[in-house]
Design a protein that fits this description.
The structure holds 2 protein chains of 2 kinds. Chain A has 3 domains: 146 residues, Rossmann fold; 107 residues, no CATH class; 89 residues, Alpha-Beta Plaits, CATH 3.30.70. Chain A is 46% helix and 12% strand. Chain A is built from 15 helices and 11 strands. A 5-stranded mixed β-sheet of chain A has the order 1-3-2-4-5, sandwiched between helices. In chain A, helix 8 packs antiparallel against helix 9 and helix 9 crosses helix 11. By secondary structure, chain B is of the alpha/beta class. Chain B contains 8 helices and 7 strands; from the N terminus they run αααβαβαββαβααββ. In chain B, strand 6 and strand 7 form a beta hairpin. Chain B is 41% helix and 23% strand. Classes of the chains: A alpha/beta, B alpha/beta. At the A-B interface, helix 4 of A face helix 6 and helix 7 of B. The structure holds S-adenosylmethionine.
Chain lengths: 360, 221
């Protein structure tokens, strides 16, 4: 049962999969052990428990409606109340003598640090982006080096998020082939999977900003190959025709979803759906939230230097390194183009210096 | 009352929540609220946990109660405020937006009664325990707590039946609102463990719904 749940969580991350909210001891924690907060997505909690083997700490599992931290914080399922509620009702205050919470920084879009501190009386520290780094972070007195603050979206991460979000599409096309082109089903299963791995591996080096542009570039190459083969082989003898056509169908499918799932690229699908008035499917929103307005380019990230109080919340929290600090210790854009509209900086900024505005 | 499963969908639209809820439950939600209001002694100072749009508060006010309500959902609170405005209830009914985790802000022994309908099934185990502990603290001695909610039936056969009928509805709710409610396994047990004496428990609808009344005995803290 637990295995099935893990598999479901891995392959169908688009669908929520909740686990029990509350306090979970990891190892043999005591009054001085650190307190970490996470979401109630089954897979996240399982992975954390595995990665944290050998540590002694308290894990507070907060309500995120069974969605992973990043998606839930962007979609507002994982919010300030999720954290405040589990801190106050789980009885953790009676178990430890300190008052420091370590929060997942990818939760920053939904969980406002200053508000959690105000409502609970606990001090909040941001942990590392990747759970793998938690042991090193704890051993190093909760200090974060630069890589711990950033999302790099390397191959392993691409395959992991890609697999979970694209698998339903892969299955859907498998069904289509099963029903209508059953002779090509095996070819599809192999080529569809290979295209996925190849495309995901090549993504960073493909030209274009968006997933669909990158996919269309690959399609153009494949088309050239296809035509060449058609040309040099006798009619009907092209041995790779089916494979190439299948790849040319599947790669744009993967590419189209890429932005949305990677969260480091603007999505192509969202503005398209938004324009047709589809604002949400289930809990996945396409329009109307700050994040989607930014993603769809209906609004842009704006910064009012006059209002900045120099607290560094933005540069601490941005997973893309958009923010830096100038000589007068105020925030400044250093890499605005890298912004992926996670809205973490907007949520955290205590003086409303960072906002999303309609371009004038 | 299996249709409670759909509640999560209706909650997404507070303005039509009461009517729709009444429709899918064929008037039973309203009846349940009337039963709860009937248990509240006349003229009580009442706290309502998760007051929603304030329908139950309205019924209690007709029985001379003054009600303080809170709810986690900003849009529910907005709708409740509109009710206060249109029905001129401002000196009888006040609301605030917070979760049960905020109940520690109330003073000791402040209320004659605490009520809550269809909220506990949305709370985590910890939240329920916390809410009941706080309820005990802020009730006056002799005060009562009334909770009406979806519960897990007691007998094995009913349990199975309940699960089977509920399952397809659960799927629909999950797809639309990606959340669900969880029937409470042992409501009166939880009340008893929080230190209340159980005065009565009325079960209905194939044993899947319960109204439980607990009392904070005089001399209890
Ligand atoms: C099904 S509605 C019931 C509303 C009202 N009591 C009624 O019977 O019509 C459940 C309500 O519980 C509220 N709720 C959910 N979790 C809560 C929490 N942690 N604290 C307070 N209210 C909460 C929701 O916002 C929602 O309004």
């Amino acid at each position: 049962m637990s295995f099935l749940k893990t598999l479901w969580g891995l392959l169908f991350r688009l669908f929520p999969c909740p686990t029990k909210v509350g306090l979970r001891p990891i190892g043999n924690p005591g009054p001085d052990s650190p307190v970490l907060v996470t979401c109630n997505f089954d897979l996240t909690v399982k992975r954390l428990s595995r990665l944290l083997q050998g540590q002694d700490l308290w894990l507070l599992v907060g309500e995120s409606k069974g969605v992973n931290v990043w998606c839930a914080a962007g979609g507002e399922e994982f919010n300030t109340h999720s954290v405040v509620s589990v801190v106050k009702t789980s009885g953790i205050a009676d178990k430890v003598s300190h008052r420091t919470l370590i929060l997942p920084p990818l939760g920053a879009p939904g969980v406002k640090k200053s508000e959690v501190e105000k409502q609970t009386g606990w001090k909040v520290k941001w942990g590392p982006v990747w759970a793998e780094d938690i042991p090193r972070y704890l051993a190093d007195n909760c200090k974060r080096d630069e890589p711990m603050k950033r999302v790099t979206y390397n191959l392993k991460e691409r395959l992991d998020t890609g697999l979970s979000c694209l698998f339903p599409f892969y299955l859907f096309f498998a069904l289509v082939f099963f029903l209508f082109f059953s002779t090509q089903l095996t070819t599809y299963l192999v080529v569809g999977a290979l295209s996925f791995f190849a495309f995901m591996s090549l993504v960073p080096w493909l030209p274009g900003e968006r997933g669909i542009t990158k996919a269309l570039f690959v399609d153009a190459l494949l088309l050239a190959i296809l035509l060449t083969l058609e040309f040099i082989t006798d009619s009907d003898a092209n041995p790779f025709r089916a494979q190439l056509v299948i790849a040319m169908i599947m790669i744009p499918v993967y590419g189209l979803e890429l932005g949305g799932l990677a969260s480091t690229m603007p999505s192509d699908l969202d503005p398209f759906l938004a324009r047709f008035g589809v604002k949400a499917i289930g809990n996945v929103e396409f329009a109307g939230t700050t994040r989607t307005e930014l993603l769809n380019r209906f609004k842009i990230l704006t910064y009012d230097r006059e209002k900045c109080i120099g607290c560094r919340s933005c540069s601490e929290i941005c997973p893309q390194g958009v923010w830096g600090i100038d000589e007068e210790k105020r925030a400044m854009f250093v890499n605005k183009d890298a912004c992926t509209a996670c809205v973490g900086c907007i949520t955290q900024c205590p003086s409303a210096a960072i906002t999303a505005k309609k371009p004038s | 009352m299996f249709s409670y499963v759909f509640m999560k969908i209706l909650e997404m639209r507070p303005r039509s929540y009461d009517q729709q809820m009444d429709k899918i439950s064929r008037g039973r939600v309203r009846a349940a609220k009337e039963a709860v209001a009937g248990e509240v002694p006349k003229g009580s100072h009442v706290l309502e946990i998760g007051c929603g749009t304030g329908e139950l508060a309205g019924l209690m006010i007709q029985r001379d109660a003054t009600v303080e309500g809170f709810d986690l959902s900003p849009s529910m609170i907005q709708t409740a405020k509109e009710r206060i405005e249109t029905e001129n209830l401002s000196d009888k009914f006040s609301v605030s937006q917070m979760g049960v985790d905020g109940m520690d802000r109330f003073r000791d022994e402040q209320f004659d009664a605490i009520v809550s309908t269809l909220v506990f099934s949305e709370l985590s185990d910890d939240e329920r325990r916390f809410a009941l502990k706080q309820a005990k603290r802020i009730l006056k001695p002799g005060g009562i707590i009334i909770i009406a909610d979806e519960v897990v039936p007691k007998t094995f056969f009913r349990k199975i039946l309940h699960t089977v009928i509920r399952l397809p509805m659960l799927a629909v709710t999950y797809l639309v609102s990606s959340s669900s409610t969880r029937p409470i396994p042992d409501l009166s047990g939880e009340l008893a463990r929080a230190g209340f004496s159980i005065q009565k428990e009325i079960r209905s609808h194939g044993d899947s719904f319960a109204m439980t009344v607990g009392i904070k005995e005089k001399g209890e803290k």
